[in-house]
Amino acid sequence: MSRTDAILTRLLALHPKLIDLSLARMERLLDALGRPQDRLPPVIHVAGTNGKGSTVAYLRAFLEAAGKRVHVYTSPQLVHFNERIRLAGKLVGNRQLNAALEHCEVVNAGVPITYFEITTAAAIHLFAKTPADYLLLEVGLGGRYDATNVVDKPLGAVITPVSVDHIEYLGSDIGGIAREKAGILKRGALAVVARQTEAGLAAIEAEAAKLGVTPFLAGQDFDCHFADGRMVYQDEDGLLDLPPPALAGPHQIDNAGVAIAAARHFGLPVSAEEIARGLRSVDWPARLAPITGRLRDLISPDQELWLDGGHNEAGGRVLAEALHDMHRRNPRPLVLIMGTFANKDAEGYLKHFTSMPEIVFTVPIPGDRAAWKPSALAALARRLGFAAQPKRGIPSALTAAAKVPGARIVICGALHLAGSVLALDGSPPR
């Protein structure tokens, strides 16, 4: 066990629950640390159900194309915890990370606090100590009571599409979930809101009105679409003719549009040319990304291999839409390799694929007892009309998938599974 893993294991034992939504414990620890949240660079706070990470990745790409130093906080990690914290453009080093975690552990003095809270406090401590031009801060879960919601005066807030997820914490009512996400809005701060359901938008606008905030809305104040191989963005300040984003899938046009709207509405110092460069260079692993490492040795050279970490019903929908689009442009037999958690709507996820896959191979999520058993997930897929077989793991599933000539093989269903795939592939995020 590495020193970092040993520290994180100790921190896990500080609270009986992994998630316990509240701000009191976080505020207590930050006060004891000298309120580092008051010494941060301008903060852009991002909440939502789907597209948060991609939106952050675009904003980072735009700002870095303009030569800015950017802190980034995202979660969860795919392979290594360090991925959660990017300091002025680089993933936090082990020594810096360990020192910050141990400092927070000592200051906390054994008082109950959740794992996400104390690790978020360590991140904020590091962000305050390291000079940068901006901080892109992604919400972990919900918004109002999330541990990241401790910045009184952010530059702006972004709310990406809201859908049903984490019902054990947020409930299943889309309006109620959207209200919790809108809890990151602050009086006097700007806000950009992606396309929402009618109920979701009504809830967000009601929360904004209480604070005197007028959100900048997708479909009303700005829009973005794909036309003739280009991405076209338009708002009240004019039209941008841009290259398509490097991230795959039609949904990435919407995510990129939200990020461009935030850059322009928040007055970020990025030009149209720098936005274009950012769109070409953006990187966000395991979001319908090709796998190019050693796992390709298990399949045929004429096959494609993709990885996607979308894990809820909405994630299944956008993945299915992206695969339909790929098939229209380059038809291939589709093979899904799927693993997901027992608390996820696996039926809702799979229903979006209708009769697309040639076969579905189901796999366990390594080291996680809370995942669907491959046999049960395969039985569910068969009830939905798919040919499906359980497999012991990714290598055996890829070996079986290699028998489908010219297949487009897509590993999907959970970010935790995606992380184990990247580790097996030898291509962790950098």
Automatic annotation (TrEMBL):
Source species, domain of life: Bacteria
Cite the Mur ligase central domain residue spans from the record: 46-263
**Gene3D superfamilies assigned:** Mur ligase, C-terminal domain (3.90.190.20), Mur-like, catalytic domain (3.40.1190.10)
SUPFAM superfamilies, per database record: MurD-like peptide ligases, catalytic domain (SSF53623), MurD-like peptide ligases, peptide-binding domain (SSF53244)
Entry keywords, A to Z: ATP-binding, Ligase, Magnesium, Metal-binding, Nucleotide-binding
Keyword Metal-binding on this protein? yes
Identify one Pfam family in the record. Answer: Mur_ligase_M
Q: Please report which protein family the annotation says this sequence is part of.
A: Belongs to the folylpolyglutamate synthase family.
This chain belongs to the protein called: Bifunctional folylpolyglutamate synthase/dihydrofolate synthase
Its source organism is Devosia nitrariae
**Upper classification of the organism:** Bacteria, Pseudomonadati, Pseudomonadota, Alphaproteobacteria, Hyphomicrobiales
Q: Which gene encodes it?
A: folC
